[in-house]
Each structure stands twice: as structure tokens, then as C-alpha cells.
Amino acid sequence: MRRPQLKIPSWLPVDGYILALIGTVVLAALLPARGAVATGAEGASTGAVALLFFLYGARLSTREAMDGLRHWRLHLTVLAFTFAVFPLLGLAARGLVPYLLTPQLYTGLLFLCLVPSTIQSSIAFTSIARGNVAAAICAGSFSSLAGIVITPLLAAVLLGGDGGGFSADSLLSIVFQLLVPFLAGQLFRRWISGFLTRHKKVLGYVDRGSILLVVYTAFSTGMVQGIWSKVSFWRLVELVAVEAVLLAVMLTLTTYGSRKLGFPRADRIAITFAGSKKSLAAGLPMASVLFGAQASLAVLPLMLFHQMQLMVCAVIAKRYARRAEAAEAAESPEPVAERTADAGPGGADGTAGAVSAADTVGARR
Q1: Per-residue pLDDT for 108 more than 80?
Q2: Within a 10 A sphere around the Cβ of 175, how many other Cβ atoms?
Q3: Torsion angle of alpha carbons 175, 177, 180, 186, nearest 10°?
Q4: pTM (two decimals)
């Protein structure tokens, strides 16, 4: 007799991987790594980061990326929102210090604005909303690829000496821990792509487990050094409020900006989801390299923003799908029941479907 498995209710708009991250933070708070264990965890974390970016490089199809160049105008728009508009809003948030944000939390918020866009969750929500999925795939891939170079450079310019340990050595660490493994993955892709495809599910656990290790190491260091004594409960509430405004502004700008630029509906959907979201999977390893002992506070805004964007984008994707259904119903007498099968992973009538898709793949990017 099979034992019942504990599952998150489909109606609960919470990313399951975020719960695992929260559990890892709690573990680090109760049992932080110290001494030799901390040294071993730090070494394992460094290796895990390199492995992550090797796998990222091996999975990215160069041919597909080149095929997507015909959508160059869309990709440039997404890159502009990700690496220009977001950082400008992050710089504007400097005025909230010290009224709503501490200097440490502001550094984390600004870093959040510098990381690349997501891939999987953007694809999932674009699919549910009946958008241009191929464009979302290419836009996310280009953003992630560009972020390996652009994010550290932006951090060097905008964070400078206030980056919690950021320095020229950090930039070199980015090159050797992130860029070199990524390029190695691209180099070996032709020989290992079949293996990666056959073991996609197992390697997905490797991805997530590696990030959990990075989080545990960062938050353990923060606990040992007493970093969390600098953050109060109300500061966290204020941080969530600031991030809610940030997300609302970006969703508004991507939605109406893409319309003003004359993109068709399907492309506007892809731009909205790819241009307003940030990658947890790329941001966490980068933060561990750039911020060192201060990484726990640096990644906190990103972790909160990630969950918020999943919940909000699930609702938006549902609304897009309903509008598409209404338009189809007005044009065709075909019964709605026969069309809902094409509405995407979760159907067109509920946030549960959208969140389910995001739970499957969204937390990895």
C-alpha cells in the first residue's frame, strides 16, 4: 500500500521551492555551520555554483538562440527593461534610506534590480496567457546569457565599495566560477546534451539542491556574524511593501510600453512576463560570489520578490487567458469546453494551473 504524499494544495499560491528555501533558512538559523563544517560547506557551495553554470551552458542551445535573433526588437526591449529600467528604479529607491530601508537591505534591493530575467517561469506564464512562447524562451535565454557579464559589471559601477565585499577579486571570481563553467558547458554541449535530456529530472534536483546549499552557507555565515540582529520585523514589512510597488511599476511599464512600441498581443505578453521578473537561480549564486559574508542580507530581497512575482503573474496569466477565450468565443461558435483544452498547463480558469506550472519549473529561474 502506497503512503499518501504531502502536497501543497493547488489553490494555495505558494511556490513549493520557496518553502524549501524558507526551511533552509530556518535550518541555518537553528544549526548554522561553524568551524570545519563551515569551511567544508563553503567549498561545496563554490563547487555547486560552478556546476550550476556549467549545466546552464550545456542546456542552452546555441542554434535556438541564433534562430531567435529575428525577434531582435523584442529581445532588446526585454533587455532594456531588465538591465536599464530596473536598475534606474533601484537607484531611485536610494531615497528610501534610512526611512524605509536600511543600507544593507537597500544594497540587496539594488542587486535584485541587476540580476537577469527568468526563463522557465516566464515561459510557463506566457504559455498560459496564450503569448509568444518561442519569444519568451529566446528572451529569457538571452537575458540569462547577458546577465553573466552585465550583472557583475553593473554591480561594479552601481554598488562599488558599498557592495558588502564587492571588489575586483569578486569580479575575477565571477569570471572563474560563473563565466568559465558556462562557456565550458557550451563547449561540451554537443557531447553531453543527450545525457542531460535523458536525466533532466534528476539534474533538476541537482540544480535546486545546489541553490539550497548556497542559501544554507550564506545564511549560516550571517547567523554566526550576527547580521540578522540588524534587521527588524517592521523593516521586513517595509521591504515587502517597497518590492510590491517595484513589481507593480515594472508590470505597468512592460505592459503599456510594449503596446506603445507597437508589438502584437502575443509578443506583448512575452515582454510583460520576461521583462518584469528576476531570476532566483541566477541571482543566488552571483550574490554568494559578490557579497561573501554579507550574502544572506543581499539575497533576502530577491527571495521575497521571487515569490511575489510568481503569485502576481499567476493572476495576470489567468486574466490574459480569459480574455483570449472571450475573443475566441466572439469569433467562433465552437463550444468553450472544447477550447479550454488548449488554454495551457492549468486551463484558463484558475490561478492553481498557473501556480502549478510555475511550481514545476518557475523556481529554477
Answers
A1: yes
A2: 14
A3: -130
A4: 0.76
